[in-house]
Amino acid sequence: MTEKQLLLVEDNELNRDMLSRRLKRAGFHAQIAEDGAKALALIESERPALVLLDMNLPVIDGWSVCRQVRANPELADTPIIALTAHAMSEDRDRALEAGCDDYATKPVDFPALLEKIARLLER
């Protein structure tokens, strides 16, 4: 399997390290952004196959990042999975309304996340 380039946008260092290691073991190469501004720059320059996007980010929040990606015709098809500690149904709805394709709560159920990634990369 060839490595798929993902972008992991996570400001928490422990979450970032754990997820990036697990993604690598699953055969993915994950670029890292610690805030929304860096995420937007990397999405534009690197065109990742998929974005794992924390919603509570410094500089620009995840909802704004998602809306800006969706507003750009060249990037609008980029699959985005929201990552958030907020587990209420309103939070899921808010992420989907912002344009996220799917949603995962923290702590991340990694096997379920891999299924979501696979499904979105297949489309």
TrEMBL record:
Pfam families: Response_reg. The modification 4-aspartylphosphate is found at residue 54. Gene3D superfamilies: 3.40.50.2300. Keywords: Phosphoprotein, Two-component regulatory system. Residues 5-121 form the Response regulatory domain. PANTHER family: HYBRID SIGNAL TRANSDUCTION HISTIDINE KINASE J. This is Response regulator.
